[in-house]
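Exercise 3.2. Students should predict the tertiary structure of the chain below and write it as structure tokens, then compare their answer with the key that follows.

Predict this chain's 3D structure.
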Amino acid sequence: MTNTSFTQKILTVNITLASGTFANGANSVSLTGLRTECTIDKSGHPSKNTAKIKIFGMLETDMNKLTTVSFKALAVKKNYVQVLAGDENGMATAFQGEIVGAFANYKTPPNLVFSIEATEGYYPAIAPCAPKSYKGGVSVATVMSALAKQMGYAFENTGVTAQIHSPYLNGTAMQQAAALAAAANIEFGVDNGVLFIAPRGTVRGGSVVPLLSAQSGMKECPTFDKEGIKVECLYNPGITLGGSIKVQSVVQVACGVWRVNGLKHHLSALHSGGPWLTEINASWVGE
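Answer key:
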């Protein structure tokens, strides 16, 4: 997969330490202007969004400060990473989450590369949380909003008005949110710092539906599976997990509006011929 668009692509990686400082004397660093490669997988609930990032040319002191080995669970620190993707016309968040592994590869000099593995929702899925119980009918959106706040997420509700009777929720905050979504039979997910809900089978809010066609960056023709379609296109920040896309294709049965159930971004900057593409799994919504 290669990048066939005609602007210089930019990836900025922002990292924040839970404790300590980088070489700049601060607990955060913004890395841009470095060769960077990134694969972002957003498969949808119950999977968590993940990112694998490779950065070339980092300062060795910063690499040592950030190094975390995922096979030592107690060594995983509450360090955060945000990936911004775009070009001279603007940047947008492609991923944000907690770093679960980070280490340098010293075997390929002079191309020293630092690898980061991150998961969105890692800490809310493991941090202890007090159980919650309610008497009588309670708004699903109200409880979800409170859980989102507890986990440090913004909250987005696209039309969920259901109530649930006398729920009892236990486990971690993320487990409680997932259990509530299952009981209420609604769409639920976390993406780029937002916990979102919507009625089952509907899409997240947003008045603009990205158009995918040969003229707007769709690669080849859509293919089909038992869940819907698979389509590949140039990276577009307007395509979101749980949101909608409109497909125009010579394959007539693929034309229409689809719900994005999963995304996989392949992004690179300062890498000649590197990818700037997204793979999409989607289910049918309508014409």
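Discussion points: The two ends are 30 Å apart (CA to CA). The helical segments are 60-66, 140-151, 173-184.
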